[in-house]
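Supplementary Text 2. Reproducibility record for the structural model of the 227-residue chain.

All settings were left at their defaults, and a single model was retained for analysis rather than an ensemble. We include the record here because the model underlies the residue-level annotations in Supplementary Table 4.
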Amino acid sequence: MTVKDAILIIDDEVQIRRLLEITLSANGFKIIEASTGKEGVTFAASQQPNLIILDLGLPDIDGLEVVNKLREWYLKPIIILSVRNSEEDIVKALDNGANDYLTKPFRTGELLARIRVALRQNQNISENPVVEFGTLSIDLVNHTVRKNNELIKLTSTEYTLLALLVKNEGRVLTHQYILKEVWGMSYIEQTQYLRVFIAQLRKKIEDDPTKPKLLNTESGIGYRFGN
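Retained model, structure tokens:
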């Protein structure tokens, strides 16, 4: 992180914006604030922030519509911060292009951690084709995976699944998104199929498959690679 990293906060609650401004400024971020969806989209285009924190309950347009508008051109991370906590709302936001989702009230430490992961993920893959997580090494160019410097034998599907998760490190990917990306539209309801493959991958890459630290389950929603 550098002091030049800018975060756009789109939230109509003054108290929330103030809390975020104090917390994020103290951690070296430049803060841009918007109180409506339209204003947020305008600021995103003119200020080009490194990351956006977005509330779904905005006074003018729904936050999901804001996500859709932003994703027409904005490729950097979007983190949803909302009182809406239903599985349906979370899945919709993630499927529409949000990178992460936290519910209010939230812990500032957790939000900061999610921000760091999102920013790191956004720049690391293009700069570092070989990604390392402890003793695990994934070569995204040569499609090889090593653990403790020993080559791990993965099927083509297992590698495709792992690479998708690694390229989205820290981002929650929904069951439907993963199934569509790896297997195709005809498989988007086959969540049990996905669980089987996740279990197989955990046996091969986790130190303890029963206590995974890399392939993390987001209950009822999907999976997240990394913290």
